[in-house]
Amino acid sequence: MERTIQKKLSVGGGSWVTVDVYGEPDAPGLVVVPGVMSDAHAWSRVAGTIDAWPSVVVVNRRGRAASGPLTRSYSLRTEVEDLGVVLDEFVGTRALFGWSYGGLIALLAADDRPIPQVIAYEPVMRPFGRHALPDLKRAEEKADWDRCVEIVNRQISGFSAAHVEELRADRDGWATLRRLSGPLYAELGALNAAAPPDAMARLAVQVDLVIGRFNRGTAPYGTSFDTVRQHVAHARVHELPGHGHLAHIQAPAELGRLLDKLVVL
């Protein structure tokens, strides 16, 4: 489906979020919550392949253009409340889908209000990437965004130096990663500052947790996935064969088809 409108929603405290709407704007559908180092644009190809819902709303979380600033009071709770504003705007949302940090936000939102279905792709939770926070803080203080991209790929995701150099060779892609690294330290700090509840998504009727086959049982994403799973006892678990954490970039059509299959009618 094609993007039909973009909306700007005030979330209070001098900030706002924008949302990209695909399909029928007034038809209740799927709300997508991207994670760290990602924005609504990065999810356009996935949204364009989805057919099972009449609409797809992709949240551009605060801290990335064209949404507003994080603000000084930013926390994980801020993200959950921002998502609540989006859900109030799109009344009757049938499903929430969150990726990585966005998956955690979606699961926590389903503690605040009844949601028919929550789908989370490799959600992360505390402790995740805590060891990299000191280096990220120093890089942010120097506005060294190249260093931030290196840290998230090498120290947190565990990719090789060769992989980072391949990313750097794509000048436009590297520029995007530099831009998206701006809120990285604050987001990772918020993730690790919030004590998780004993259970998550308690008001969701159906919860589906998805992991890429390449990350099954391996750090950091597979092990964090296992931790999340312990907090969502009623979840169904699914695997996306042949892929890892960046399926929305490397295999958007496959990820879209998987989401279509998980729809609860």
UniProtKB/TrEMBL annotation:
UniProt entry tagged with the keyword Hydrolase: yes
Highest taxon of the lineage: Bacteria
Keywords, in A-Z order: Hydrolase
Gene3D superfamilies: alpha/beta hydrolase
Domain AB hydrolase-1 span(s) in chain numbering: 30-255
Keyword Chloroplast: no
Gene Ontology MF, one: hydrolase activity
Pfam family, one: Abhydrolase_6
InterPro entries named in the record: AB_hydrolase_1, AB_hydrolase_fold
Protein name: Alpha/beta fold hydrolase
Gene source species: Streptomyces hokutonensis
